[in-house]
Specification:
With 127 residues, this protein is mainly β. Helix content is 0%, strand content 48%. Strand 5 and strand 6 form a beta hairpin. The termini are far apart.
Length: 127
């Protein structure tokens, strides 16, 4: 079992930055695909970014590409999401997820493939 706890959410002005962190416990994440999803009010949960355990395999939704950066620290068992140039449409609850399989460009955004989920952290971007 892997337990995931997100932190770092909050209220920020448009154009600002936030850094979300996901702390994992129970197992090392060194061989897990780690991902971030988000869910805005009244909308379905959507893929944001993923990082498989192969160095360089990072994926981003088109809506955040160039603004968000995912990174992981296997020694600390954490995965971060640096969010820059935030927009009001980035407002959502952000969830960390883990999957024991190697993500590909075709599977990274498939929520049902992720075995473990955090409780989420709220990000609100004011215009």
């Amino acid at each position: 079992q892997v337990q995931l706890v997100e932190s770092g959410g909050g209220l920020v002005q448009a154009g600002g930055s936030l850094k979300l962190s996901c702390a994992a416990s129970g197992r090392t994440i060194s061989k897990y695909t780690m991902a971030w999803f988000r869910q805005a009010p009244g909308k379905e949960r959507e893929f944001v970014s993923a990082n498989s355990w192969i160095a360089g395999n990072k994926y981003y939704a088109d809506s955040v590409k160039g603004r968000f950066t995912i990174s992981r620290d296997n020694a600390k068992n954490t995965v971060d999401l640096q969010m820059n140039s935030l927009k009001p449409e980035d407002t959502a609850v952000y969830y960390c997820a883990a999957d024991g399989r190697l993500a590909t460009a075709q599977t990274m955004g498939v929520m049902t493939l992720y075995d473990y989920w955090g409780q989420g952290t709220q990000v609100t971007v004011a215009s």
